[in-house]
Write a structure and sequence with these properties.
The protein has 56 residues and is mainly alpha-helical. The protein contains three helices and no strands. It has one domain. The protein is globular, with a radius of gyration of 12 Å.
């Protein structure tokens, strides 16, 4: 994955949910947090701890 694409994915998800719910600022902020987790590879670790299997 290209550098910065995780943050872009997180922001896109945040904007989509924010527009649908009317809480754009909150969801963009959460999208940035998720994007940073994706960039750092920490989201996979969190998902595995929650019981989701990795495709790796």
């Amino acid at each position: 994955m290209e550098k910065g694409s995780g943050i872009a994915i997180g922001i896109a998800i945040g904007v989509g949910i924010g527009v649908a719910t009317g809480s754009l600022g909150l969801w963009i902020a959460l999208g940035v947090v998720v994007g940073v987790l994706i960039e750092n590879g920490e989201l996979d670790d969190i998902m595995e701890k929650c019981g989701f299997e990795s495709d790796d």
